[in-house]
């Protein structure tokens, strides 16, 4: 027994099929009543039994809504709600009126999904404001549903912070890089500290969630790509340079025994600021620490502090083609003791470089 073609095959046939009788591309029309695809040149039926997947009824005016509902199906089910989100509604009497007593008693009953629906709506608004995909949005709703039970109070935790923390965790799971500050920007009436507290609460409440998120950790390299795109520096060579600087800086710090890590956003912003100073291109013109701070969400002082940590390693971090441009780097501000130590250490580092350029220190 022959089966009807799949919807994807039907759509492809409508726009890419060539009439086998005419042996050339022709205009094809769809006969909705018979379910046929017909060639307009020779009248040959190319496909039959095409299933119409559009809605069975369309309402064009408000006056049509006053009559009997012609739809025979309900809305889609939602696996996150009790009983798939299906509920009972009280219909109209034959004369078009409602039974007020029965409707009042029905509405008086407690709806266990009402609070969840309101929470899902708020999470969706935050996700749309932050430009997140539907996958992240659904993941955040699923996390919130798993942690917060109906009727269970959230002692010491605000709802906006719980929504934001759920979105942050969903971003981590899907590999979408968002920092706490970026999430806080789309969550009104909350702070980064509150979101961090709710984040720890959710991770502790769900066993194994922290292990799953470790596979999608936020790294400076991932943030660099997004920051450069927002700064108009989406150049492949520039991205390679900034990524190489970050990777080398991390390895050098680990080699020297530094176990504490800085914030990924501050490291990414500092690497961009370092690369902007030696980059030969119009895109880098006019970009300063203030502009990078606005895009990354980090304070200028924090970026300059991370930049000061990177500066002594410039001769080792930069590729050979950029070593001769090291004198163009802006030296960080420091006291006399730090300047003397830096000058003594850089003398050996720069001497090993191919061009042997010396870094200039600011006047004290």
TrEMBL record:
GO terms for cellular component: nucleus; transcription preinitiation complex. One of its GO terms (molecular function) is TBP-class protein binding. It holds the Pfam family TFIIB. Residues 60-94 are annotated as: Disordered. InterPro entries: Cyclin-like_sf (IPR036915), TFIIB (IPR000812), TFIIB_cyclin (IPR013150), Znf_TFIIB (IPR013137). One of its GO terms (biological process) is transcription preinitiation complex assembly. Residues 15-47 form the TFIIB-type domain. Keywords: Metal-binding, Transcription, Transcription regulation, Zinc, Zinc-finger. Residues 85-94 have a biased composition (Polar residues). The keyword Transcription applies. This is TFIIB-type domain-containing protein. It comes from Micromonas commoda (strain RCC299 / NOUM17 / CCMP2709). The lineage of its organism: Eukaryota, Viridiplantae, Chlorophyta, Mamiellophyceae, Mamiellales.
């Amino acid at each position: 027994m022959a089966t009807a073609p799949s919807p994807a095959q039907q759509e492809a046939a409508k726009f890419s099929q060539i009439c086998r009788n005419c042996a050339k591309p022709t205009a094809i029309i769809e006969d909705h009543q018979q379910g046929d695809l017909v060639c307009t040149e020779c009248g040959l039926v190319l496909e039959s039994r095409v299933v119409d997947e559009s809605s069975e009824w369309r309402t064009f005016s408000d006056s049509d809504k006053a009559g009997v509902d012609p739809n025979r199906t309900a809305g889609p089910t939602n696996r996150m709600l009790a009983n798939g989100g299906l509920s009972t509604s009280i219909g109209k009497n034959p004369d078009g009126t409602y039974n007020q007593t029965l409707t009042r008693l029905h509405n008086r009953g407690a709806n266990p999904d009402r609070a969840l629906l309101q929470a899902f709506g708020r999470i969706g608004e935050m996700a749309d404001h932050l430009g997140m995909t539907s996958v992240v949005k659904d993941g955040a709703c699923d996390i919130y549903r798993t942690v917060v039970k109906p009727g269970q109070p959230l002692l010491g935790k605000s709802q906006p912070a719980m929504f934001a923390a759920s979105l942050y965790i969903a971003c981590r799971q899907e590999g979408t890089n968002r920092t706490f500050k970026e999430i806080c920007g789309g969550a009104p009436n909350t702070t980064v500290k509150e979101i961090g507290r709710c984040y720890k609460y959710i991770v502790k409440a769900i066993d194994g969630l922290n292990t799953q998120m470790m596979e999608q950790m936020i790294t400076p390299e991932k943030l660099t790509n997004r920051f450069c795109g927002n700064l108009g520096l989406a150049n492949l060579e520039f991205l390679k340079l900034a990524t190489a600087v970050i990777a080398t800086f991390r390895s050098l710090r680990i080699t020297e025994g530094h176990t504490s890590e800085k914030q990924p956003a501050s490291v990414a912003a500092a690497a961009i600021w370092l690369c902007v100073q030696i980059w030969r291109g119009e895109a880098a013109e006019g970009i300063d620490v203030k502009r990078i701070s606005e895009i990354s969400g980090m304070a200028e002082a924090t970026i300059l502090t991370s930049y000061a940590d990177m500066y002594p390693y410039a001769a080792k971090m930069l590729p050979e083609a950029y070593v001769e441009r090291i004198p163009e780097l802006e030296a960080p501000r420091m006291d006399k003791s730090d300047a003397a130590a830096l000058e003594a250490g850089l003398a050996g580092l720069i001497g090993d470089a191919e061009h042997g350029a010396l870094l200039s220190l600011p006047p004290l």
